[in-house]
Amino acid sequence: MTSLNRYPIHMDTKMTTSLLTNFGGLSLQSPLIVGACPMTLSEQSRLAMQNAGVGAIVLPSLFEEQVIGWSIASGRTITQREKEIYARANRTEHNWAVQDAESYLSLVNRASALQTVPIIASLNGFTAGGWMDFAGELEEAGASAIELNVPHSHARDYDNSVEIETIIRDAVREINAAITIPLFVKLGRNFTSVPHIARQLLSGAQGLVLHGRAPALDISLETLNLTRQWKLTNSGVQSESLDALMQVHSYCPAMPLAASGGIGHADDLVKALLAGADVGMVTSAVYREGPDVIRTLLEGLVEFMERRQMKTLRDLQMQRPLEFNSDEERAAYIAALTEHLETSEKQALISQARNES
After folding, report:
1. How far apart are CA 187 and CA 153, in angstroms?
2. For residue 109, what pLDDT is reported?
3. Which fold has domain 4-322?
4. Tens digits of residue pLDDT in 175-184
Protein backbone atom coordinates (compact mmCIF):
# COMPACT_ATOMS: atom_id res chain seq x y z
CA MET A 1 0.00 0.00 0.00
CA THR A 2 0.99 3.64 -0.40
CA SER A 3 3.48 5.03 2.09
CA LEU A 4 2.94 8.38 3.79
CA ASN A 5 6.59 9.24 3.19
CA ARG A 6 5.92 9.54 -0.52
CA TYR A 7 3.20 12.13 0.01
CA PRO A 8 4.58 14.99 2.15
CA ILE A 9 2.31 17.68 3.56
CA HIS A 10 2.16 20.88 1.50
CA MET A 11 -0.35 22.70 3.68
CA ASP A 12 0.25 25.80 5.78
CA THR A 13 2.61 24.87 8.62
CA LYS A 14 0.49 26.95 11.04
CA MET A 15 -2.06 24.14 10.94
CA THR A 16 -1.15 22.06 13.99
CA THR A 17 -4.18 19.78 13.84
CA SER A 18 -3.39 16.59 11.91
CA LEU A 19 -5.50 15.88 8.84
CA LEU A 20 -3.64 12.70 7.93
CA THR A 21 -6.06 9.94 7.04
CA ASN A 22 -6.47 6.67 5.18
CA PHE A 23 -9.03 5.86 2.53
CA GLY A 24 -9.29 2.23 1.50
CA GLY A 25 -5.56 1.64 1.84
CA LEU A 26 -4.39 5.01 0.48
CA SER A 27 -2.51 7.18 2.97
CA LEU A 28 -3.57 10.79 2.41
CA GLN A 29 -2.32 14.14 3.68
CA SER A 30 -5.92 15.35 4.01
CA PRO A 31 -9.50 14.01 3.69
CA LEU A 32 -10.19 15.96 0.49
CA ILE A 33 -9.96 14.47 -3.01
CA VAL A 34 -10.48 16.27 -6.31
CA GLY A 35 -12.99 14.20 -8.30
CA ALA A 36 -12.69 13.10 -11.91
CA CYS A 37 -12.92 16.09 -14.26
CA PRO A 38 -11.08 17.56 -17.27
CA MET A 39 -9.36 20.07 -14.98
CA THR A 40 -7.14 17.29 -13.64
CA LEU A 41 -5.67 16.86 -17.14
CA SER A 42 -3.60 20.00 -16.56
CA GLU A 43 -0.22 19.55 -14.93
CA GLN A 44 -0.38 23.14 -13.65
CA SER A 45 -3.81 22.54 -12.07
CA ARG A 46 -2.70 19.29 -10.44
CA LEU A 47 0.34 21.03 -8.95
CA ALA A 48 -1.85 23.83 -7.57
CA MET A 49 -4.24 21.27 -6.06
CA GLN A 50 -1.33 19.41 -4.50
CA ASN A 51 0.14 22.58 -2.99
CA ALA A 52 -3.28 23.56 -1.62
CA GLY A 53 -3.29 20.38 0.46
CA VAL A 54 -5.46 17.95 -1.51
CA GLY A 55 -5.24 14.33 -0.42
CA ALA A 56 -5.47 12.74 -3.88
CA ILE A 57 -6.45 13.57 -7.46
CA VAL A 58 -8.78 11.58 -9.71
CA LEU A 59 -8.03 11.82 -13.43
CA PRO A 60 -10.84 12.21 -16.01
CA SER A 61 -12.72 9.02 -16.82
CA LEU A 62 -11.79 6.60 -19.55
CA PHE A 63 -14.95 5.00 -20.92
CA GLU A 64 -15.65 1.34 -21.55
CA GLU A 65 -16.07 2.04 -25.28
CA GLN A 66 -12.44 3.19 -25.34
CA VAL A 67 -11.30 0.13 -23.42
CA ILE A 68 -13.07 -2.09 -25.97
CA GLY A 69 -11.19 -0.26 -28.72
CA TRP A 70 -7.95 -0.96 -26.84
CA SER A 71 -8.90 -4.65 -26.58
CA ILE A 72 -9.55 -4.86 -30.32
CA ALA A 73 -6.23 -3.15 -31.09
CA SER A 74 -4.52 -5.60 -28.72
CA GLY A 75 -5.92 -8.56 -30.65
CA ARG A 76 -8.21 -9.71 -27.87
CA THR A 77 -11.44 -11.49 -28.78
CA ILE A 78 -14.38 -9.41 -27.60
CA THR A 79 -17.81 -10.59 -26.51
CA GLN A 80 -21.08 -9.97 -28.34
CA ARG A 81 -22.04 -7.44 -25.68
CA GLU A 82 -18.78 -5.57 -26.26
CA LYS A 83 -19.38 -5.59 -30.02
CA GLU A 84 -22.79 -3.97 -29.48
CA ILE A 85 -21.35 -1.29 -27.17
CA TYR A 86 -18.52 -0.53 -29.58
CA ALA A 87 -20.83 -0.37 -32.62
CA ARG A 88 -23.17 2.00 -30.79
CA ALA A 89 -20.25 4.23 -29.80
CA ASN A 90 -19.01 4.42 -33.38
CA ARG A 91 -22.39 5.72 -34.57
CA THR A 92 -21.91 8.87 -32.52
CA GLU A 93 -19.11 11.41 -32.44
CA HIS A 94 -17.63 11.72 -28.95
CA ASN A 95 -15.54 14.52 -27.51
CA TRP A 96 -13.42 12.36 -25.20
CA ALA A 97 -11.39 14.12 -22.50
CA VAL A 98 -8.58 11.69 -23.39
CA GLN A 99 -8.52 10.43 -26.96
CA ASP A 100 -7.85 6.73 -26.41
CA ALA A 101 -6.67 4.14 -23.92
CA GLU A 102 -2.99 4.39 -24.85
CA SER A 103 -3.09 8.16 -24.33
CA TYR A 104 -4.74 7.55 -20.97
CA LEU A 105 -1.95 5.22 -19.87
CA SER A 106 0.56 7.91 -20.81
CA LEU A 107 -1.40 10.46 -18.77
CA VAL A 108 -1.43 8.18 -15.73
CA ASN A 109 2.29 7.53 -16.06
CA ARG A 110 3.15 11.22 -16.42
CA ALA A 111 0.86 12.41 -13.60
CA SER A 112 2.01 9.76 -11.13
CA ALA A 113 5.64 10.61 -11.85
CA LEU A 114 5.18 14.37 -11.43
CA GLN A 115 2.73 14.54 -8.52
CA THR A 116 3.55 13.70 -4.90
CA VAL A 117 -0.07 12.93 -3.98
CA PRO A 118 -1.82 9.72 -5.06
CA ILE A 119 -3.16 9.70 -8.61
CA ILE A 120 -6.39 7.76 -9.05
CA ALA A 121 -7.36 6.49 -12.50
CA SER A 122 -11.07 6.53 -13.36
CA LEU A 123 -12.91 3.94 -15.48
CA ASN A 124 -16.52 4.56 -16.52
CA GLY A 125 -18.56 1.42 -17.16
CA PHE A 126 -18.86 -2.15 -15.94
CA THR A 127 -19.72 -4.44 -18.86
CA ALA A 128 -16.56 -4.49 -20.97
CA GLY A 129 -14.66 -7.76 -20.63
CA GLY A 130 -11.30 -6.02 -21.09
CA TRP A 131 -11.48 -4.28 -17.71
CA MET A 132 -9.32 -6.87 -15.99
CA ASP A 133 -6.46 -6.61 -18.47
CA PHE A 134 -6.64 -2.83 -18.66
CA ALA A 135 -6.84 -2.38 -14.88
CA GLY A 136 -3.49 -4.15 -14.66
CA GLU A 137 -2.09 -1.77 -17.28
CA LEU A 138 -3.23 1.21 -15.18
CA GLU A 139 -1.47 -0.17 -12.12
CA GLU A 140 1.70 -0.75 -14.13
CA ALA A 141 1.49 2.82 -15.46
CA GLY A 142 1.65 4.13 -11.88
CA ALA A 143 -1.94 4.65 -10.72
CA SER A 144 -2.20 4.60 -6.92
CA ALA A 145 -5.81 3.39 -7.12
CA ILE A 146 -8.65 2.91 -9.59
CA GLU A 147 -12.13 4.40 -9.37
CA LEU A 148 -14.80 2.39 -11.20
CA ASN A 149 -17.63 4.76 -12.06
CA VAL A 150 -20.77 2.65 -12.50
CA PRO A 151 -23.08 4.56 -14.89
CA HIS A 152 -26.87 4.64 -14.92
CA SER A 153 -28.18 1.40 -16.45
CA HIS A 154 -31.00 1.26 -18.98
CA ALA A 155 -33.76 -1.04 -17.76
CA ARG A 156 -34.30 -2.48 -21.24
CA ASP A 157 -30.77 -3.96 -21.23
CA TYR A 158 -31.43 -6.24 -18.24
CA ASP A 159 -34.12 -8.61 -17.01
CA ASN A 160 -34.25 -7.27 -13.46
CA SER A 161 -32.37 -5.25 -10.84
CA VAL A 162 -30.74 -8.35 -9.39
CA GLU A 163 -29.00 -8.99 -12.72
CA ILE A 164 -27.55 -5.46 -12.74
CA GLU A 165 -26.24 -5.77 -9.20
CA THR A 166 -24.80 -9.22 -9.87
CA ILE A 167 -22.93 -7.99 -12.96
CA ILE A 168 -21.50 -5.05 -11.00
CA ARG A 169 -20.49 -7.26 -8.08
CA ASP A 170 -18.80 -9.82 -10.34
CA ALA A 171 -16.99 -7.13 -12.35
CA VAL A 172 -15.70 -5.51 -9.16
CA ARG A 173 -14.42 -8.83 -7.83
CA GLU A 174 -12.71 -9.71 -11.11
CA ILE A 175 -11.02 -6.32 -11.43
CA ASN A 176 -9.91 -6.40 -7.80
CA ALA A 177 -8.40 -9.86 -8.30
CA ALA A 178 -6.32 -8.53 -11.21
CA ILE A 179 -4.69 -5.63 -9.31
CA THR A 180 -2.91 -4.97 -6.03
CA ILE A 181 -3.86 -1.29 -5.71
CA PRO A 182 -7.16 -0.15 -4.11
CA LEU A 183 -10.36 -0.26 -6.16
CA PHE A 184 -13.08 2.29 -5.37
CA VAL A 185 -16.61 1.98 -6.78
CA LYS A 186 -18.64 5.09 -7.55
CA LEU A 187 -22.38 4.44 -7.37
CA GLY A 188 -25.31 6.58 -8.46
CA ARG A 189 -28.55 7.02 -6.55
CA ASN A 190 -30.57 4.65 -8.75
CA PHE A 191 -30.24 1.56 -6.58
CA THR A 192 -32.92 0.11 -4.36
CA SER A 193 -30.65 -0.25 -1.34
CA VAL A 194 -27.10 1.08 -1.43
CA PRO A 195 -26.30 -0.26 2.08
CA HIS A 196 -26.98 -3.82 0.89
CA ILE A 197 -24.90 -3.33 -2.26
CA ALA A 198 -22.09 -1.97 -0.08
CA ARG A 199 -22.03 -5.20 1.90
CA GLN A 200 -22.00 -7.26 -1.32
CA LEU A 201 -19.03 -5.27 -2.61
CA LEU A 202 -16.91 -5.74 0.51
CA SER A 203 -15.17 -8.70 -1.10
CA GLY A 204 -13.96 -6.62 -4.06
CA ALA A 205 -14.02 -2.89 -3.38
CA GLN A 206 -11.80 -1.02 -0.94
CA GLY A 207 -14.16 1.95 -0.86
CA LEU A 208 -17.41 3.43 -2.17
CA VAL A 209 -17.94 6.90 -3.62
CA LEU A 210 -21.45 8.25 -2.97
CA HIS A 211 -22.80 9.38 -5.30
CA GLY A 212 -21.99 9.45 -8.98
CA ARG A 213 -23.96 12.08 -10.87
CA ALA A 214 -25.29 12.00 -14.43
CA PRO A 215 -25.81 15.04 -16.69
CA ALA A 216 -29.22 16.63 -16.18
CA LEU A 217 -31.92 15.41 -18.58
CA ASP A 218 -34.23 17.97 -20.18
CA ILE A 219 -36.67 18.28 -23.09
CA SER A 220 -36.29 21.08 -25.60
CA LEU A 221 -39.68 22.68 -26.23
CA GLU A 222 -38.31 24.07 -29.51
CA THR A 223 -37.15 20.80 -31.08
CA LEU A 224 -38.99 18.35 -28.77
CA ASN A 225 -35.71 16.46 -28.49
CA LEU A 226 -34.03 15.19 -25.36
CA THR A 227 -31.00 17.12 -24.17
CA ARG A 228 -28.41 16.47 -21.50
CA GLN A 229 -26.38 19.16 -19.83
CA TRP A 230 -23.70 18.95 -17.20
CA LYS A 231 -24.26 21.45 -14.42
CA LEU A 232 -22.04 22.32 -11.49
CA THR A 233 -23.50 21.38 -8.12
CA ASN A 234 -24.14 24.05 -5.52
CA SER A 235 -22.71 24.09 -2.03
CA GLY A 236 -25.09 22.59 0.49
CA VAL A 237 -26.85 20.08 -1.75
CA GLN A 238 -24.48 17.52 -0.25
CA SER A 239 -26.87 17.47 2.70
CA GLU A 240 -29.15 15.34 0.50
CA SER A 241 -26.57 12.54 0.79
CA LEU A 242 -26.13 12.64 4.56
CA ASP A 243 -28.86 10.08 5.16
CA ALA A 244 -27.36 7.68 2.60
CA LEU A 245 -23.89 8.07 4.12
CA MET A 246 -25.22 7.38 7.61
CA GLN A 247 -27.22 4.36 6.44
CA VAL A 248 -24.30 2.77 4.60
CA HIS A 249 -21.86 3.50 7.42
CA SER A 250 -24.26 2.07 10.00
CA TYR A 251 -25.14 -1.07 8.03
CA CYS A 252 -21.67 -1.70 6.60
CA PRO A 253 -19.09 0.09 8.81
CA ALA A 254 -16.21 -1.88 7.27
CA MET A 255 -16.70 -0.12 3.91
CA PRO A 256 -14.68 3.12 3.56
CA LEU A 257 -16.80 5.94 2.12
CA ALA A 258 -16.16 9.05 0.04
CA ALA A 259 -18.83 11.76 -0.08
CA SER A 260 -19.22 13.27 -3.54
CA GLY A 261 -21.40 16.16 -4.70
CA GLY A 262 -22.12 19.57 -3.20
CA ILE A 263 -19.02 20.06 -1.04
CA GLY A 264 -18.29 23.75 -1.53
CA HIS A 265 -17.95 24.99 2.03
CA ALA A 266 -16.06 23.69 5.06
CA ASP A 267 -19.39 22.97 6.76
CA ASP A 268 -20.28 20.58 3.92
CA LEU A 269 -17.04 18.67 4.43
CA VAL A 270 -17.45 18.52 8.21
CA LYS A 271 -21.01 17.21 7.91
CA ALA A 272 -19.95 14.54 5.41
CA LEU A 273 -17.20 13.33 7.76
CA LEU A 274 -19.60 13.30 10.71
CA ALA A 275 -22.16 11.34 8.66
CA GLY A 276 -19.72 8.51 8.03
CA ALA A 277 -17.50 9.54 5.12
CA ASP A 278 -13.76 9.00 5.40
CA VAL A 279 -13.05 11.63 2.74
CA GLY A 280 -14.90 14.24 0.73
CA MET A 281 -14.65 14.73 -3.03
CA VAL A 282 -14.76 18.22 -4.50
CA THR A 283 -15.11 19.18 -8.16
CA SER A 284 -17.63 21.96 -8.83
CA ALA A 285 -16.15 24.26 -6.17
CA VAL A 286 -12.71 23.89 -7.79
CA TYR A 287 -14.21 24.86 -11.15
CA ARG A 288 -15.88 27.92 -9.62
CA GLU A 289 -13.13 29.18 -7.35
CA GLY A 290 -9.95 27.49 -8.52
CA PRO A 291 -7.63 25.12 -6.62
CA ASP A 292 -7.21 27.56 -3.72
CA VAL A 293 -10.70 26.59 -2.53
CA ILE A 294 -9.09 23.34 -1.35
CA ARG A 295 -6.98 25.27 1.16
CA THR A 296 -10.05 27.23 2.27
CA LEU A 297 -12.05 24.04 2.87
CA LEU A 298 -9.25 22.42 4.84
CA GLU A 299 -8.61 25.53 6.92
CA GLY A 300 -12.31 25.58 7.79
CA LEU A 301 -12.14 21.92 8.80
CA VAL A 302 -9.13 22.63 11.03
CA GLU A 303 -10.90 25.60 12.64
CA PHE A 304 -13.90 23.40 13.43
CA MET A 305 -11.67 20.72 14.95
CA GLU A 306 -9.63 23.19 17.00
CA ARG A 307 -12.75 24.80 18.46
CA ARG A 308 -13.69 21.36 19.76
CA GLN A 309 -10.14 20.42 20.76
CA MET A 310 -9.93 17.64 18.18
CA LYS A 311 -6.32 16.82 17.33
CA THR A 312 -6.93 14.18 14.65
CA LEU A 313 -9.68 13.09 12.29
CA ARG A 314 -10.15 10.07 14.51
CA ASP A 315 -11.25 12.46 17.27
CA LEU A 316 -13.83 13.90 14.88
CA GLN A 317 -15.05 10.46 13.84
CA MET A 318 -15.59 9.53 17.48
CA GLN A 319 -18.15 12.35 17.67
CA ARG A 320 -20.31 10.99 14.86
CA PRO A 321 -23.99 11.22 15.85
CA LEU A 322 -25.93 8.03 16.34
CA GLU A 323 -28.67 7.22 13.88
CA PHE A 324 -32.23 8.14 14.74
CA ASN A 325 -34.09 5.39 16.50
CA SER A 326 -37.42 4.49 14.90
CA ASP A 327 -39.44 6.74 17.24
CA GLU A 328 -37.20 9.77 16.73
CA GLU A 329 -36.99 9.32 12.96
CA ARG A 330 -40.75 8.99 12.56
CA ALA A 331 -41.36 12.02 14.78
CA ALA A 332 -38.79 14.13 12.91
CA TYR A 333 -40.27 13.04 9.57
CA ILE A 334 -43.78 14.09 10.56
CA ALA A 335 -42.55 17.33 12.12
CA ALA A 336 -40.79 18.28 8.88
CA LEU A 337 -43.90 17.62 6.80
CA THR A 338 -46.30 19.41 9.11
CA GLU A 339 -44.54 22.71 9.70
CA HIS A 340 -47.57 24.61 8.42
CA LEU A 341 -49.93 23.04 10.98
CA GLU A 342 -50.85 24.58 14.28
CA THR A 343 -48.74 23.38 17.20
CA SER A 344 -51.62 21.44 18.76
CA GLU A 345 -52.36 19.58 15.52
CA LYS A 346 -48.68 18.78 15.02
CA GLN A 347 -48.25 17.43 18.55
CA ALA A 348 -51.29 15.21 18.10
CA LEU A 349 -49.82 13.64 14.94
CA ILE A 350 -46.40 13.12 16.54
CA SER A 351 -47.96 11.51 19.62
CA GLN A 352 -50.03 9.23 17.41
CA ALA A 353 -46.93 8.17 15.45
CA ARG A 354 -45.08 7.33 18.65
CA ASN A 355 -47.98 5.26 19.92
CA GLU A 356 -48.09 3.31 16.65
CA SER A 357 -44.33 2.55 16.68
Report:
1. 11
2. 98
3. TIM Barrel (3.20.20)
4. 999 999 999 9
Say how far apart CA 198 and CA 256 lie, in whole Å.
Answer: 10
CB 278 within 8 A of CB 256: yes
Does the pTM of the predicted model rise above 0.90? no
Residues 64, 70, 76, 82, CA torsion sign: positive
Peptide bond into 152 cis (omega under 30): no
Banded pLDDT at 153 (limits 50, 70, 90): low
Burial letters for 93-112: b for 16+ Cβ neighbours within 10 Å, e otherwise?
A: eeeebbeebeebbebbbebb
Rounded-to-integer distance, Cα 104 and Cα 102, Å:
5
pLDDT at 221: 87
Asked whether the predicted pLDDT for residue 256 surpasses 60, the reply is yes
**CA–CA gap between residue 175 and residue 146 (Å, rounded):** 10
The whole-number pLDDT of residue 120 equals 98
Q: Alpha-carbon distance 304 to 299, whole Å?
A: 9
| Residue length of the chain | 357
d(CA 138, CA 105): 6
**Residue 141 reports pLDDT greater than 60:** yes
When mean pLDDT is compared across 143-147, 310-314, 315-319, 334-338, the lowest value belongs to 334-338
Non-local CB neighbours of 347 within 8 Å, separated by 6+ positions: none
305 vs 298: CA distance, rounded Å = 11
* DSSP H helical ranges for the chain: 43-51, 64-73, 80-90, 101-114, 131-141, 161-178, 194-200, 242-251, 266-275, 284-289, 292-307, 313-317, 326-337, 343-356
Distance CA 37, CA 91 (A): 25
Cross-strand partners of 209 = 186, 258
> Cα(56)–Cα(226) distance, rounded to whole angstroms?
36
SS3 58: strand
153 secondary structure, DSSP code: P
Give 222's DSSP letter: T
